[in-house]
Amino acid sequence: MKNLILTMVLMLAISTVSCAQQKNVPEKVKSAFAQKFPSAKKVSWDMEDETEWEAEFKMNGKEYSANFSVNGEWKETEYEIKKSEIPANIKAILDQNFTDYDIEGAEIAETASGKSYEFEIEVGEEEFEVVIDANGKLTKKKESDDEEGDEENDDDNN
């Protein structure tokens, strides 16, 4: 019974913090978001850090996230894409740089400086974060830290 009460209090506290974050979104941020994404549905807000807000929402059948400064300046939009939606020239860059790889996740990231493709790929037992700009230039290739603690791969000697 004591654990049940503690659990209920904890859940109430979490939902209160979440609601507080939803209500504290600056009007400049909400206005800029509404102007940029007028057809967005099911919007939820979180404060990324002291200088940035992130909205997660649905639009055109996809899940999006968009970041705005506290002053309402749009910073970045990201959304997942299917493997079949990866342009041939971008896929060719992956093929040139990796052999026998599996794409675990693919996203398009848009910023004021342009569009890029972000991938989580697996090559054998290794996982990589890869970013390719819209011109086909590989701009980031980094071995993932495996933050989620993949239980199937306990080999930490990489």
TrEMBL record:
Tell me the ranges covered by the Putative beta-lactamase-inhibitor-like PepSY-like domain, including all copies.
54-139
- Alphabetized UniProt keyword annotations: Signal
Question: What start and end residues bound the annotated signal peptide?
Answer: 1-20
Q: Where is this region: Disordered?
A: 134-158
Q: Which domain of life is it from?
A: Bacteria
Coiled-coil residue windows? none
InterPro entries in the record, alphabetically?
A: PepSY-like (IPR021533)
Gene3D superfamilies for this protein: 3.10.450.360
PROSITE patterns in the record: PROKAR_LIPOPROTEIN (PS51257)
Query: Residue spans with biased composition (Acidic residues)?
Result: 145-158
Write the protein's name. Answer: Putative beta-lactamase-inhibitor-like, PepSY-like
